[in-house]
Amino acid sequence: MTGAFLALVVLTAATVFGLRWQARRGRFTAAASTAPTALDGLGIRPGAVTLLQFSSRICAPCRATSRLLADIAGTHPAVEHLEIDVEAHLAAVRALDVRRTPTLFVLDRGGNVVVRASGLPARADVESALQPLLTAA
């Protein structure tokens, strides 16, 4: 009886955790303030709205995210897409608290991080995050 109850508790906890994790995947959240030097050396151009993607070579969702963001950047002249290899920029990964790939940061024209998402985002979510930044100019 105790073993069956323990198994039920563990399965319930794992299911709740999995559902919460799945619901948060690819969703944008407000970004915490970043250190001024965290973005140095990543090739961010002032004056452009930037989609900054942290990826790894072996990540399949990273490739899909890269195609999506390149397509979105191609439709908006004021938007740039930069893909950063996590292995080559460990200091930035630590400073920005990148815990998984792909991680996407949306930066305003001043180079400030506005929102972030982990996982493959939906096109509509990316467009919604960009809209206020593009109309503000």
What does it look like?
By secondary structure, the protein is of the alpha+beta class. Helices cover 42% and strands 20% of the residues. It has a single domain, classed as Glutaredoxin, CATH 3.40.30. β4 and β5 form a beta hairpin. The chain has four helices and five strands; from the N terminus they run αββαβαββα.
List the helices and strands and how they pair.
Layout (H helix, E strand, L loop, with lengths): L1 H23 L4 E2 L18 E7 L4 H16 L3 E7 L4 H6 L7 E5 L5 E6 L4 H13 L2
Parallel strand pairs: 2-3
Antiparallel strand pairs: 1-5, 2-4, 4-5
N-C termini distance: 65 Å
Output the radius of gyration: 18 Å
Principal-axes geometry comes out as: elongated
Look up the CATH topology.
Glutaredoxin
CATH superfamily: Glutaredoxin
Order of the strands making up the biggest sheet: 1-5-4-2-3
Largest sheet: 5 strands, mixed
Tally of alpha and pi helices? 4
- The CATH architecture comes to 3-Layer(aba) Sandwich
**DSSP strand (E) fraction?**
15-25%
Structural class: alpha+beta
How many beta-strand elements?
5
Specify the CATH class: Alpha Beta
Task: State the order of secondary-structure elements, H for helix, E for strand.
Answer: HEEHEHEEH
Uncertain runs are: none
The amount of helix comes to 40-55%
